[in-house]
Amino acid sequence: MDRESKDILLKGPVAAAWNDASYVVKCFRAKPSEPILPVSGERNVLVTSALPYVNNVPHLGNLIGCVLSGDVFARYCRQRNYNVLYVCGTDEYGTATETKAIEEGLTPKEICDKYFEIHDKVYKWFNIDFDIFGRTSTAHQTRIAQEIFWDLYHNGFIVKDNVDQLLCQTCDRFLADRFVEGICPFCSFDGARGDQCDKCGHLINAIELKSPKCKLCSSEPCIKTSNHLFLDLAKLQDPVNELFMKSSDQGVWSNNAKIITSTWLRDGLNRRCISRDLKWGTPVPLDGYTNKVFYVWFDAPIGYISITAGYIDEWEKWWKNPDEVKLYQFMAKDNVPFHTVVFPASLIGTKKPYTFLDSISSTEFLNYEDGKFSKSRGVGVFGNDAIDTGIPADVFRFYLLLVRPETQDSVFSWSDFAIKVNAELVNNLGNFINRTLTFLGKNYELVMPPVFPNDGDIHFLEQINVELQNYIENMEKCKLRDGLKCILSISKLGNGYLQAGEPWKLLKLNNNADKLRADSIIGISTNVVYLLCILLYPFMPSAGSDILKQLNVMENCIAIPEAMAPFLAVGHKINEPFPLFVKLEDSQVLGLKKKYSGNDTC
C-alpha cells in the first residue's frame, strides 16, 4: 500500500481518536503461559535461529545473521501479543568440535562445556531473549534423531553404499568434513573444507579436493573405502518441491533463499551421505554402522526439536502441529539448503505430521572493514570484544540492524558506526526524546497536559500513523532494517514538529490560547515518545526500558498499537528524564578500529 492510500485510509480513525479528550489506548502486553504452548485459534509463532557452532566465539556477523535477527522478530511478535516460542542452542557435534578438542588438548565434552558458557555469556550481554537456549549433545537429541532415522529407514528413504574417503595414515583416521582442507574444485579457493567451500558455497565431497591436507598433521591423505548411509533425496524431490512452492508463496522468504532452493531443486536432488566415521556425535543405531555417527547437517536441525523437548514434554504441540503453528527460521545464506531441502526432506520422509518451514529470513554476509572477520588474525569484533569496548550492547544492536545484510553483503565499519550512532541515535532519536521529556519536566512539573489538536496536529499524527503501519508491514515481512528506519523516520518527524511548533516561545507569550497550543504540542510529542519506545523495544530493549522508566510506564505496557492514538492520560506524571545515548568521540573510535584491525598492526 502506498503512502497516499494509507493517508486516506487512516485519516478518519486518527482524527476521531485525538478529538475525543477521554480516549486513551492501553498498550498492555499479555503475559505468556508457563510453559509456553500453542493456543488453538491464536497466532502461534515458532522462531528459530541457526544453531551456532559451539567451537568458537561468535563475531558480529554471526550475531546479525541469526540470533540477533531472530531475537528482534520474536520480541516484535510478543509485543503483538502473538503466542511465541523462540528456540536456539549450540550445535555441538561433528568434526569442528573434535578438531577444536584436539587443538586445545581437551575432550569434545569439555570443549562443548567451555564454549557453551562463552556463547551464553555473549548472548546474554547482547540481550538476546531466548525462550530456550539449549544444546545438541543431549539424550533428547539422540532419541529424536534416531527416531527420525528409523522412520526414514523403514519408509525406504535410506540407502547403503560404499564410499571412497580420505584416510590420514599418520593420524589413523578418516578425514571427514573439517578434518581436511584443500583447493576447491569449483572456484580454486585454497582452504576449502571437506564438506563445503566457504568462498563459493558449493558442497564438496572430500575426495574432490585438489591437494588435500590433513588438518591435524598436514600429511597428504590416501583414498580408502568405507560403508555409509545415504538419505535418498531423489525420492523426496517432489514433496520437497511442493512444500517449497507452497511455503515460498504463502510465507515470507528472503530472495536468496528462494534462489538457492530453486537452484537445488532445478538441478535435481541426489542422495546425500548422512553418516560419518567419527566418535563425537549422535550414534547411528543400525547394525553394521554403530561405529559411526550422523553427519552434522542431518543431525543439527533436529536440534531445534530436541532442544524444545528439553524445555517441555509436550514438544509435539509445537513441532507436530502444522495447522496451528507457523515456523520462522533465521540464518545466513550458507545455511539455507540444509533448512529448505535436507531438513524438510528428512521430516517429510518420516510420514508424520511435522511442523514445516513457513518463512525463512536469510541474510547475506556482514564483512569487517575491508575484509572478513578472523579470530586467528585478530581482525574484527567478536562477542567478547564487544563486551570489552565499553559501548552498550544496545548501540551495537542498533548499528548491526541498521546495516543488516538483507539483500546484499554489507560491512561493519567503525567510521560509519560512529556516524550512524551520532547522527541517528544521539542527534535524531535521543535528541527528540530528551527535548520532549525535559521540556515537560521543566514547564509542566512532569505532568501530561490536555491536548486540543488542530488540523496541523492531525496531519502530523496521520504521518506518524503511516510510519507505524509501514513499521508493522515491514516487521511482518521480516524486513527488520526497514522497520528500524521507520522508527528513525518517526523521530525525525517528531523533531520537525517540535521545532516548527516552538512551544518554548508560546509559553513566553503569557496568553491562554498560546499556552493551550503549547500544551497540545508537548502532549502530542510525549505520546510520540511513548510510541517510539514501544517500536524501539525489539531493537534496543535496554533503551526501551529506560524510556519506559522516564515515562513512568510499566514494563508490560509495550504492546504495539494498531494506530497512532493517545497512550498517556491527561494528568499522568512522568519521572525525571535523563539522556539515553552518549556521543562517540573520534579518538575512541579510531582506537577501537586500530585494536581490531589485525595482529600485525598491534
TrEMBL record:
Family: Belongs to the class-I aminoacyl-tRNA synthetase family.
Organism annotation: Amphimedon queenslandica (Sponge)
Enzymatic class: ligase
GO terms for cellular component: aminoacyl-tRNA synthetase multienzyme complex; cytosol
Domain of life according to the entry: Eukaryota
Lineage: Eukaryota, Metazoa, Porifera, Demospongiae, Heteroscleromorpha
PANTHER family: METHIONINE--TRNA LIGASE, METHIONINE--TRNA LIGASE, CYTOPLASMIC
Protein name: Methionine--tRNA ligase, cytoplasmic
Entry's Gene Ontology molecular function annotations: ATP binding; methionine-tRNA ligase activity
Methionyl/Leucyl tRNA synthetase domain segment(s): 45-437
Residue ranges occupied by any Methionyl-tRNA synthetase anticodon-binding domain in the UniProt entry: 459-600
Signal peptide: none
InterPro entries the UniProt entry points to: aa-tRNA-synth_I_CS, Anticodon_Met, Met-tRNA_ligase_1, Met-tRNA_synth, Methionyl/Leucyl_tRNA_Synth, MetRS_core, MetRS_Zn, Rossmann-like_a/b/a_fold
